[in-house]
Batch of 2 targets.
Target 1
Amino acid sequence: MAGVINDYETLHKFRNELLNTVDNLREQLKKTEKAMEDVAAVWKDMQFLKYEKEFNKDKEMIEPLCKDIEEFESDVLYPLEKILEKYTNL
């Protein structure tokens, strides 16, 4: 992270990677939810129900995590990028 603080292009790339990660995480969650629904329609054993319960607990933490990442990107990294952009006259 130290190199990111002084390098506009690296910071810009890092910001984009964070946002892409959030998008990918949300997309993967949708796919996993769909797969869980499909399996739940035909598979009702205790092991699956246990897995489904754990998945639902984990799923509840994903959106707050995504929002925290987006907030960090917009409230911390974006302003820093703008300062670097101005400072380096990009």
Target 2
Amino acid sequence: MITELQNTRDVKFIRAVWGDMDLSLIPQIPQYNEVVYVWGIENKLQLDSMGYNTILCDRNKFNFKYKSFLYQFIHKLIAIEKASKSFSKILFLDWDYNLHKNLDDDFFNYINTKTFLAPIYEYDIDDSIYSYNDLESFEYNKSELMKKYSWLKDGKYIIPNAGFIYISNPNIASELLQIAKTQNLKTLIEEFAIQIWSNCALTLK
């Protein structure tokens, strides 16, 4: 079945696939004028067969240095940096973000006034406190980093949500990746990198 792609105008929508992701869980046909950055030749071949425009980052399913489950989300920052070198305006989307209405003038007029956009979300503090002794566990590292790289409000940790990231300045993508590496971030790497990069207080209206 062929459907009309959402017109993304001068904004390039990008996605990423790495590891052993179940590709049956993603839209079986492209939704946007989008590019998918892919790790793993098998993943690329399957996405190509589904009609996606793909760019192969590595024939292996992971960047070898970041194969550990702890570091897996750095692949998103790598994809974003690569895309920023090719396109002047990019919007990264996770696969679980769904379109609720067509992209319109209001949407593009708003984002075109920005250099960076990302939503935020929250964790209850009580739900973020773990007693794991395993220093290499995902939850332990998330808990420890949440204490350092979040905004605290009304008993909740608030952090950026990296499922939607808009960038129109290519330097930002490089800065985020550099932060992740120099700070040796583990778990939710891209979200903590954004929080550090923002270097600001949080004001909620």
